[in-house]
Amino acid sequence: MQLGISSHVLLQQRLHPTHLDAFAAAGARHIELFAARNHFDYTDRNAVKEIAAWFRSSEIKPSLHQPTDAESRWTRHSAPTLNLVAPDKFRRIEAQDEIKRALETAEQIPFTTLTLHLGLNHDAWDDTILEHCLTTVEHLKAFAGPLGVKLLIENLYNDVATPAHLMSILKIGHFDSVNIAFDLGHAHLAPNQPLDGIEPALKLIKPRIGALHLHDNDANTDQHLWPLTMEKGGIDWAKVLPQLPTNVPAIVEIAHDPPLDIDTIVTKFTATFDTIRSLEDAASA
Q: How far is the CA of 231 from the CAs of 42, 194, 228, in angstroms?
């Protein structure tokens, strides 16, 4: 498994090359940068140059997660505000424009993929939403292509971005170069089970998975907990891991609240990676 780390765990802090050094020391071979102006400020030329220089001197591969809001001041209680499928056309364009600002950093940082969210928690699936999804994905795909970036659409715990609906979007839009960022924690949430649980989702979308997001929860709340640490209600990792594709980045995406110091983060990531590799070895024995 191509294990990696999301900078989401540091969302309350300004991203710095020393953080990337620490992720590398933990054993990450992929780093997903979470685009947030308070964290990785994609509008700050100096900040982008600094991060770009680090990746140019490293063999670690970067990917980008879309911004979820456009605010430069952020608190741990902030809710997502950018909505690519909002009923209001102005809000959809506003979200697209903000994501394109983040995408422009691919001129300096060698991102190969961008992970997108379609819809917020309350959004429901219908023909109008489908049309918004198709238009948005086509627009951002056309913008990302010349930058060498391909789109990944993440399954969420709303009614828009279920695995089945994501497959419909890809099929109807003929989006052959667009794939899915399969988030195991989201698939594990109780409101979407049993139809969209992890194993049914894998049967449906496995050929289109371009990346994995690994984290855990109690099957009721999107907690973004460390994998393999839940005593009750969590994902059965020993059962699930052998079913996952091994040729795509597997990004551990952990909650930023409560905040952790970088040494603790490195220790926890290293332990998580070691346990995953042990399970892989046991499955292949």
A: 39, 21, 9
**Structural domain tally of the chain?**
1
Residue located via tokens 């394109």: 100
In order, the DSSP letters of 167-221 are HHHHHHTT-TT-EEEEEHHHHH-GGGTTTTSHHHHHHHHGGGEEEEEE-B--SSS
What are the residue ranges of helices labelled H in the chain?
17-26, 45-56, 89-103, 127-144, 163-172, 184-188, 198-205, 237-240, 262-284
pLDDT tens profile 126-166: 999 999 999 999 999 999 999 999 999 999 989 999 999 99
Question: Which CATH number do you get for residue 116?
Answer: 3.20.20.150
Close Cβ partners of 32 (under 8 Å, ≥ 6 residues apart): 4, 5, 6, 7, 8, 62, 63, 64, 65, 115, 211, 249, 251, 253
Q: Are 94 and 82 in contact (CB under 8 A)?
A: yes
The encoded tokens of residue 131 equal 């049309």
Please answer whether residues 55 and 110 qualify as being in contact, where contact means their C-beta atoms are separated by less than 8 angstroms: yes
| Distance (Å) of CA 98 to CA 63, 90, 251 | 17, 12, 24
User: How many C-beta neighbours within 10 Å does residue 111 have?
Assistant: 23
| Domain extent for 280 | 2-284
Residue 105, CA distances (Å) to 5, 40, 51, 108, 114 in order = 19, 11, 10, 6, 11
**HSE-up of 72 (CA within 13 Å, CB side)?**
4
For the stretch 10-56, pLDDT in tens is 999 999 999 999 999 999 999 999 999 999 999 999 999 999 999 99
The Cα–Cα gap between 137 and 151 comes to: 8
Cis peptide before 80 (omega within 30 of 0): no
- Positive or negative: CA dihedral 94, 99, 105, 106: negative
